[in-house]
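User: Before I run my own analysis I want an independent prediction to cross-check against. Here's the chain; please return only the structure tokens and, at the end, one sentence I can use as a sanity check.
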Amino acid sequence: SRREICACAEKHRSAVLRIKESEDHRCSEKSERKRGCFVESVKIHMIHSLWPEQQGFHLERHREEDEYIFVHFLSPARLSVEGRQFSAREGSCILYNRFSDRTIDAPDVPLLHNWFHAGGNFPALMEKYQLQFNTLYEPGCDAELTGIMQAAERECMRHKPFTDEICALKIEELLARIA
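Assistant: Structure tokens:
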């Protein structure tokens, strides 16, 4: 059930406890992996959790967006990414690379999904958690991922000091849960 908290892998739990180093004391490239600091922060541009679309939803994009896009499907959909076809089951998620050709279709049921558009150093985070862009993952922890997305969405609406840093930590937690 979406309301239940799943038991995702414990090996990544410590990732959410890491704090971003200040801009004046950036991590060296060698120490970055040991200490778990950000090479460069990531920044959410747009975010929505539990976002509904009507049955028959169709989205098609052709190399036009210079940002990373994350989608967590809470209902089934058909995807095409760079010419590859996928069937996204409930709970699947994907992080699209910048300028990726992609299509999302939900012909049979209304689409419910969590999503964000963001910029920053996603390649470093993807490498850190051994994830790949444009790859469909089924982490099996829908309620937990939705909770992280909701917390990041609320934080983005606050516009308080350190909002960007808190949201960057939420994104890192999300990727750790998927890994």
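Sanity check: Confidence is low (pLDDT under 50) at residues 1-39.
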